[in-house]
Specification:
The mean pLDDT is 93. The protein has a seven-stranded mixed β-sheet, covered by helices on one side. It is of the alpha/beta class. 33% of the residues are buried.
Length: 145
């Protein structure tokens, strides 16, 4: 597994990294975004969407679970699984359709809820924020073999 680590110092830098990553990844990519509350997951998602060419506002789908954003005839699925108990509950609402859509990009917040059903090709991203209260984030990306 190939791993890369980046340190960002502002939300803008986090968004810029996410935008670059979105532009580089192939269609059908699934990203599992790990990080505690306030780590910067939604900032990352906003940058990722911008990298796909999406200009509409991006917000965390905490209460809706799923936000769908069309771009260039494709879809970007942004999911927040915080309110999902486990993979059975996720499968009940049809998450497998989103995880295995080879023409879409899928970003999952709180993927630990469904780790047992993540596709083998899932890219793992971990965002950790600095403990000294500034906007510094350490982002680790692990690509499957």
């Amino acid at each position: 597994m190939k791993t890369e680590t980046l340190i960002t110092h502002t939300p803008g830098e986090t968004e810029a990294f996410a935008a670059r990553l979105a532009a580089e990844l192939p269609e059908g990519s699934v990203l599992a975004l790990y990080g505690n509350l306030g780590a910067g997951k939604t900032v990352f998602a906003r940058g990722f969407a911008r990298g796909l060419g999406i200009t509409e506002p991006i917000s965390s789908p905490t209460f809706t679970i799923l936000q769908e954003y069309p771009y260039n005839g494709k879809m970007f699925y942004h999911m927040d699984l915080y309110r999902i108990d486990n993979s059975d509950a996720a499968l009940a609402f049809g998450i497998d359709e989103f995880l295995y859509d080879q023409t879409a990009m899928t970003l999952l917040e709180w993927p630990e809820r469904i780790e047992d059903i993540l596709p083998p090709r899932t890219i793992i991203l971990k965002i950790e924020h600095s403990e000294n209260g500034d906007d510094t984030r350490t982002i680790t990306v692990s690509y499957p073999d």
